[in-house]
Amino acid sequence: MKHKPLLSSVLLLTAAIIWGLAFVAQEKLADSVPPFTVNALRSLIACVALIPVAAVTRRIQGKKLLENDPADRKRLIKAGIICGTMLCIAANLQQFGIALYPEGAPASAHSGFLTALYIIFVPLFGLFLKKKPGFFVAIAVILATVGLYFLCLYGGFGALYMGDVVELICGMAFAVQILCVDHFIGSVDGVKLSSIQFLVTGTLSAILMLIFEKPDFGAALAAWQPLLYLALLSSGVGYTLQIIGQKYASSPTLASILMSMESVFAVIGGMIFMSAIPKTNEWIGCGIMLTAIIIAQLPSDILKKKSA
């Protein structure tokens, strides 16, 4: 249908808005709920929420919820454990990083853009898999470095937040997690993989919570609104919109660019809900990094088409 590409763009942009505002929810939770507790509860709720989504999508495809072939089940479980472990590392680094920003700092803006650098790290890390990054990625890396300077280092190393360092490492961890998903997604069901990886993330975070934190479920219950936002909207609804949106997108590049807008909405959300207004140099850094993120997603064959 001719309207499907337009519907796809609307769905992907909606997902980007949901994910961008999720940084605000994480910032609010960081004030009262420890990181491992946040990700344990968020991920386990998301896992349960995605089960009916997986059942419906499988039914639409005319398939049973569970695979008949033991080899397929084994592959799905293996993928879920690997991807879930990496998601656990990335998600907890992200929450720890947000908690490290001092009061009044534009945590949502910094964490949103620094995390979004996974879009550049993915092709760079692909070098280890003998996947040579294209010309646009090289340009994006240079721009991202300049943007990083304006966002985090404009006032010297003394202006660098510890949260910035952790969020940058978080972006690298998300890049590895994305490469793991990319490796398995062609051979397993996407929604079921997501549900299992959330189960693994939630279980591992719960173990770390019991070891390193003193769970205060009263505080978590008091912060139920941002917690449910992360679990149901950011993880459940956002992921479902991504699946449907990417399926009908006119091009993978457009889909990636639309989803990368989450960093922009992270800044907007921080301004509206946290009254965190970025400084002039931070605006410049965000703009340069957004440009780098978009350029990194341009297909390399554009140059070939132009030369032809």
Summarize the structure.
The chain contains 14 helices and no strands.
Characterization of this structure:
This protein is mostly helical. The protein has one domain (about 5-305). It is about 80% helix and about 0% strand. It has 14 helices and no strands. The protein has helices at about 5-30, 35-60, 70-100, 105-115, 120-125, 135-155, 160-185, 190-210, 215-220, 225-250, 250-260, 260-275, 280-295, 300-305. Helix 4 (about 105-115) runs parallel beside helix 7 (about 160-185). The chain is globular, with a radius of gyration of 19 Å.
Query: Could you spell the SSE succession in H and E letters?
Result: HHHHHHHHHHHHHH
Mean pLDDT: 88
**Rg result:** 19 Å
In total, the number of strands is: 0
Report the sheet with the most strands, covering strand number, pairing sense and barrel closure. none
Which descriptor suits the 3D outline?
Answer: globular
Indicate how many domains the architecture comprises.
Answer: 1
Key traits:
globular, 14 helices
Topology overview:
Layout: H1 4-30, H2 35-60, H3 70-100, H4 107-115, H5 118-125, H6 135-153, H7 162-184, H8 190-212, H9 217-222, H10 224-248, H11 252-259, H12 262-274, H13 280-296, H14 301-307
